[in-house]
Amino acid sequence: MGAASPVLEVRGLSVTFSTEAGSLSAVDGVDLTLAAGEIVGIVGESGCGKSVTAMSLAGLLPRSARVSGSVRLLGKEMIGASPAELRAARGRDIAYIFQEPMSSLNPVLTVGRQIGEVLQIHEGLSRRRARARAVELLALVGIPSPAQRVSNYPHQLSGGMRQRVMIAMAVACEPKVLVADEPTTALDVTVQAGILDVLRELRHRLGTSILVITHDLGVIADISDRVMVMYAGRVVERAGVDELFALPQHQYTGGLLSASPTPGRHAGAHRLREIPGLVPVLASQPDACTFAQRCPAADSQCLSAAPGLAVQRDRLALSQDHAVACWHPLGETPRLPVEEDR
Amino acid sequence: MSEHTTSAPVLELEDLVMHFGSVRAVDGVSLAIRKGQVMALVGESGSGKSTVGRCIVRLLEPTSGLVRLGGTDLTHLSRRRMRAHRGDVSIVFQDPAGSLDPRMLVGDVVSEPLRLASRQSRRDLRARVTAGLDQVGLRPEVARRYPHELSGGQRQRVSIARALISDPTVLIADEPTSALDVSVQASVLNLLADLQRDIGFACLFITHDLSVVEYLADEIAVMYLGKLVEQGSRERIFGRPAHPYTQALLAAAPVADPPRQRSRTRVLLGDDIPSAMDPPTGCRFHTRCPLAFNRCSEEVPALLQITDGTVACHLVLPDGTGPDVRSIDKTGSPA
Predict the structure, then answer these.
(1) Which fold, B2-228?
(2) In a domain, A230, yes or no
(3) Is the pLDDT of residue B47 over 90?
(4) How many independent structural domains does chain A possess?
(5) Can you tell me the ipTM of this complex?
(6) Which chain B residue's Cα is nearest to A246?
(7) Per DSSP, which regions of A173-268 are E strands?
């Protein structure tokens, strides 16, 4: 990181959707920076706004979405950019991979054609050069015998291979930023490990900055340098990956970590910690902590004022980049294995 | 667990086979679950684990093999005689939104198994439904709601209440928490564990997620492409997995502990998963196994009895020892 300016800088990003039931606030004041070659994870449960945040970066949201704030990608402002500017940025500056590779691939074109198309459009390569480059890209993402595979149709490939093809397509023009939205959620664990390795390899070989969006704490632990935890549209905690797992500060982060089963850690325990209640309906709550209704530590302050994301300066064990939006952070005691057996 | 070891199994599968045309989804699975035992059936997509569950409750008619419940062979019962056993084995599915009738009130959904089994007064039914909902932590008013008015976690509680209302001796839970968020998953898993301890039904917990299994299971059975590859106690499977596939599965699931996750050995199996339509010869895992040698592609490994459980691998010795894919280097081959 250091002096180099970040490749992606998001400030005060908010997204609301107007629906028949009124205005829904999906993302509420999100700040995010991504440095060159960095892998940042956004973790949260369904409805927390992590995917909407990701989609808004390159203007991929439907028209019913009202987006405000600032998204600077390689210094260029993306919010309010013209369709032509957005189109130019997609693929070259920022690219996406999604959860379900089958529905993102065209079933009637060979994978070589689909990867090649990207290169013909964005880089002006000839069809022949594009195909040769497609073979190289398939090799880059770890597909065995790429020269043969390039002529395959999507249905001839396994789910993991298809996701590799999607990654090859996404990085065809060597974008500076890759957004991976639940990249391994539809895949088996023995396949997932390989896909995560490919992402790591891309960062290493091409210096790609990667934003990984997932609900899976195991994936976050595996691949991220830094993590943002989202809850009900807001970032509730932001920290380096080791510190987030070792010293979570937000009550929600702590709850999430204790609720997720981890092999070996809770050996002998027969209960997981539960987080009572439900994720609130996405209505803007400017004057309260969105987690207050479910939080064991909530008091009147939490219901009357929304805590801002702030570094805990008085806590020496925490790094300067560890920020939390909580009136009653968990403090410096390391998280212990949960044993609430009764 | 030891108190159960001598008791007769409540559920037995004997050489269960389920073929869909040329797709050999389940190919000779034998299992026995004792009273009060929780057995996890673990496998990835295409392993046949869910098909096994569906065969047990006769949502599918197995191609061959036996399913014995408390000594009675279910597979050859007529539909009418099967009805008498319907309440003895229940199933909970992954997606409660898809498995609960959206036009039925929750109360009717929960009481349906009782109404189908015998005539009951409305008052009795209502009392049973209230008790059933209470058991899964839902208030009686929920009975007058429709499934779509409930959250995913509440709907799964309704499915569990429905499954347990007939006092089954065996509960099949097919990925019951896979569609739920982590925080909700925890409460449903805890609920299942509590109910199982309190009521004492036997449970076949079908899942792709080994980390979930550690909380619940006494025994673990691992399937790959229609075959059982290994079975044993939870302690043995997590502590000393014998089959290379089980070892790889344990190594592949990332742990939510960054320093530990970074230091773990990575076992990459490749993602070219063979199809159950044309399963590999010999050991079905040999095309992805880092330890495979000639014999593996030629000869189907027998399910070998080891100290704690069974394993089907040519490399495992009768005492249960063998190589571990987690401790070989990438280019390494077995000695």
Answers:
(1) Rossmann fold (3.40.50)
(2) no
(3) yes
(4) 1
(5) 0.84
(6) B257
(7) 177-181, 209-214, 226-231, 234-240
